[in-house]
Amino acid sequence: MAPIELAAVITPKPGQAEKFLALFDKCVKYVQANEPYVLRYELHKGIKELNGNEQFVVLEKYESKEAMDKHMQAPPIQEMINILGEGNLADTQVIMTTKGPGITSRL
C-alpha cells in the first residue's frame, strides 16, 4: 500500500495555543523515540497577519495505513486526540491523502 499522508489544520481557541504546542511537543518526542514508521511529523505555524487568526498545520506521513493506525493508538497521541475532541482547545480539520500528480519538492 502507498504511504498515507495527513494534514491537520488546528485553530486554537483564544489563549489555548501554548497548551496545544505543549501537547504537540510531547507527541513529537514520543514519535522520535518510538515510531520509525512515521516518516514525517512536523508543525507549520500560520502567518496570523495573512490568515486572520492563529493556526497551525501539522503534516504527517506514514509508511502505511497500519503504521498510521499504530501511531494513533500511542498514549500521547490518544491524550491529544481526546483533549482536541472535547472542543475546548481548538477547532481541527484533518485531511488524509495519498500522493497524486504534481512536482515533488525540489529543495
UniProtKB/TrEMBL annotation:
Instruction: Enumerate the SUPFAM superfamilies for this protein.
Output: Dimeric alpha+beta barrel
Q: Which domain of life is it from?
A: Eukaryota
User: What is the native source organism of this protein?
Assistant: Clonostachys solani
Task: Indicate what this protein is called per its UniProt record.
Answer: ABM domain-containing protein
Domain ABM as annotated: residue spans: 4-96
